[in-house]
Amino acid sequence: MSKRQGVTSEKHVHVSKEWSTYSVTPNGNNKTSRQASLRKKIREHNFSQAYGKIQVLLRESANEAMPNLIHKVNNKQIEATVKIFNTVYSLIKRNRPLSDVEAALDLQKK
Fold first, then answer.
1. 3-state SS string over the chain?
2. Of 1, 84, 91, 94, which sits most exposed with the smallest number of CB within 10 A?
3. Could you report the per-residue pLDDT of 42-81, keeping only the tens digit for each?
4. Which domain holds residue 79?
């Protein structure tokens, strides 16, 4: 992977120019030898480090680890906002001054 793949990138994993530019071409003079040449190139690619790493990345992306993590973080932020809103609402409902907000929020943390 000569191009950056984000935080999961590995150093020294090489993808041939032929595969990265989608220009895999057969060698040979007749149909049988060209097909054999392509089969050999595909087989070698399937056993390459780059192909293996891409397969791992595809499996990990199928699990959607990042969207689940973002969803959990967003839920925590929403819960915190709801608690603050409810605290302010209860103070206003009881005709308390807004200067009591800080003390009420400190009680929630403990």
1. CCCCCHHHCCCCCCCCHHHHCCCCCCCCCCHHHHHHHHHHHHHHHHCCHHHHHHHHHHHHHHCCHHHHHHHHHHHHHHHHHHHHHHHHHHHHHCCCCHHHHHHHHHHHHC
2. 94
3. 888 778 888 888 888 788 777 776 677 777 788 888 888 9
4. 64-110
Q: Classify residue 71 as exposed, middle or buried by CB count within 10 Å of its CB (0-12, 13-18, 19+).
A: exposed
Same domain flag for 78 and 106: yes
Same domain, 70 and 105: yes
Query: 89 and 68 in one domain?
Result: yes
Amino acid occupying residue 90: S
Whole-number pLDDT of residue 1: 42
